[in-house]
Write a structure and sequence with these properties.
By secondary structure, the protein is an alpha/beta fold. The chain contains ten helices and nine strands. It has two domains: 167 residues, HUPs (Rossmann fold, 3-Layer(aba) Sandwich); 91 residues, Pantoate-beta-alanine ligase, C-terminal domain (Pantoate--beta-alanine Ligase, Chain: A,domain 2, 2-Layer Sandwich), CATH 3.30.1300.10. The strands form two sheets. It has a six-stranded parallel beta sheet, sandwiched between helices. Strands 7-8-9 form a three-stranded antiparallel beta sheet, covered by helices on one side. The model has no long low-confidence stretch (mean pLDDT 95).
Length: 276
């Protein structure tokens, strides 16, 4: 499309802007970092039009979670999107996404049930509902998601297959700091001490992946990694080897597998994963 990026806040204008075009879409909650920009660039390389949304979705936060504290940096975000070649920025308000008379939401099972699904009840129902709404509003050919949130990608892929929605889900490998820490909007809340400890999560994942690939026993390897995290000052919520698609735990490497981990570091939860 070229030219200045259009910032759109109402549905009629959004529909007019994408009248059946070849569009790649990057849904975000804002507080954009290089990981998000990598998604925009991947979409830019593959589509005539690129749209990104910024919407901090209240339905995916639990009652004791950081919805109000979640960083909101709209002006900065829009400048980054435009610099990355985004054509359309979709910034709906809560009333547009969740009208007062709305009576439908999506309930997900399968890959949504364990791990983040257990720790954050209702989280993936909120994610699936908002993503389905965004797909209906934006009507993209493809949507781009970062592999840092591996479970989220599997939940959305399952929803798209089950409903079935005419969107191709494109996972993009996690972008990391030089010391291995996965980029995340919440990293800005890490103090200097926590920031120094945080890379231990990726280090433990990488070490466990190498050990498993070399034939080490699964349970002992996972136990060692959990101990390593505690020793570094992290409190693991889980550190597991799962089937890459179903996210059910596995005890061998017969199918594509993924190591998933979440750990607390002070008030911040870090998520990461690696293929095995």
């Amino acid at each position: 499309m070229g030219g200045a990026m259009r910032v759109i806040r109402n549905l009629a204008e959004l529909r007019a802007a994408n009248a059946g075009g070849d569009l790649g879409f990057v849904p975000t909650m804002g507080a954009l970092h290089a990981g998000h920009i990598g998604l925009v660039r991947a979409a830019r390389a593959a589509h005539e039009l690129v749209a990104a949304s910024i919407f901090v979705n209240p339905t995916q936060f639990g009652p004791n979670e950081d919805f109000l504290a979640y960083p909101r940096t709209e002006d900065e975000d829009l400048a980054k999107l435009e610099a990355a070649g985004c054509d359309l920025a979709w910034l709906p308000d809560v009333g547009t996404m969740y009208p007062a008379d709305a009576a439908t939401s999506i309930q997900v099972a399968g890959p949504a049930l364990r791990w983040e699904g257990e720790i954050r009840p209702g989280h993936f129902n909120g994610v699936a509902t908002v993503v389905a709404k965004l797909f209906g509003q934006v009507r993209p050919k493809s949507a781009y998601f970062g592999e840092k949130d591996w479970q989220q990608i599997q939940v959305i892929s399952r929803m798209v297959a089950d409903l079935p929605l005419p969107v191709r889900i494109v996972p993009i490998p996690t972008i990391r700091e030089a010391d291995g820490l996965a980029l995340s909007s919440r990293n800005r809340f890490l103090g200097p001490r926590e920031r120094a400890i945080a890379p231990a999560l990726h280090k433990a994942l990488s070490g466990a992946a190498r050990a498993l690939a070399a034939g080490a026993p699964v349970e002992a390897t996972l136990d060692d990694a959990r101990k390593e995290l505690r020793g570094a000052g992290l409190t693991p919520d889980y550190f597991v080897l799962v089937n890459a698609k179903s996210l059910e735990p596995v005890t061998s490497l017969s199918d594509p597998a993924r190591l998933l981990a979440a750990a607390k570091l002070g008030p911040i939860r870090l998520l990461d994963n690696v293929p095995v």
